[in-house]
């Protein structure tokens, strides 16, 4: 419990929940850090706060100015909240294939929203280039640039990593994380490996993501086929570059669907897609390294934000996916085999 005077003072210091069903099944301690508890409902509030406070400290960003950012949605929501806290406005540029729930949240927070068609990064109408051009068009606009701005990873190096270290009393063997900008995995891996270089860091990546193929082959082979949002970028960016990663796993969307149903049923948590993927990665880490290991991962956001996709059988069917969950015992058996 905390008493605060500003919403932004409630960013961070999130709880760590033991996922009992998976811990009992694997003989590992599988812990999930509830980043959904941040005021904007996602892990990206942390990056938003750090990017804005660092830019204000440098004098680049002053009250009355407008923060501009290209976003899959969660960073836009976080920035909208933090911008308000400092007397700034917010303009989010978002591809129009992201969940309508996130679009609505940005608008509800009073930010301006510009949606663009989803196009490949090389196209100048990509949301990233659109945000940059808009920011350059006016002197009172400031571009947050979460991909290249390393205040993003600093948020995790300064806060999330130390919180995990404290909450586990230093008893952590494996950190499992998805990556979008890479801020989460970079900042946390840097901090945790400084405390104990033995800690293993696992990247979990969705099917069709460029990062996984880059780490394995040095080439970006990507088809963007995953239903996940905000993760699995197709290029190497500054935040991701600094991540200290020991293993990368690539899991199909069907596995995260199964995992989301399992923890809803057994643990009472309704996760967003990237968080369900994180837990599937944690299960695979438990299969390959367990039992007896402590594995920490993140609930980056909750399923209410992906109700129209992950929890919508019609949507899943339209993508050739099934609403039927594979039992987690079978998922685990497959993951054991992956290690053979
Ligand atoms: N999960 C969700 C739901 C996200 O929105 C994002 C960021 N877009 C991530 C994970 C990835 O976090 P990061 O940018 O720190 O890699």
Automatic annotation (TrEMBL):
Residues 9-301 form the Tryptophan synthase beta chain-like PALP domain. Keywords: Amino-acid biosynthesis, Cysteine biosynthesis, Pyridoxal phosphate, Transferase. It catalyses: O-acetyl-L-serine + hydrogen sulfide = L-cysteine + acetate. Its EC number is 2.5.1.47. The keyword Amino-acid biosynthesis applies. One of its GO terms (molecular function) is pyridoxal phosphate binding. GO terms for biological process: cysteine biosynthetic process from serine. Pathway: Amino-acid biosynthesis; L-cysteine biosynthesis; L-cysteine from L-serine: step 2/2. It is an enzyme of class 2 (transferase). Gene3D superfamilies: 3.40.50.1100. The keyword Transferase applies. Its cofactor is pyridoxal 5'-phosphate. Belongs to the cysteine synthase/cystathionine beta-synthase family. This is Cysteine synthase.
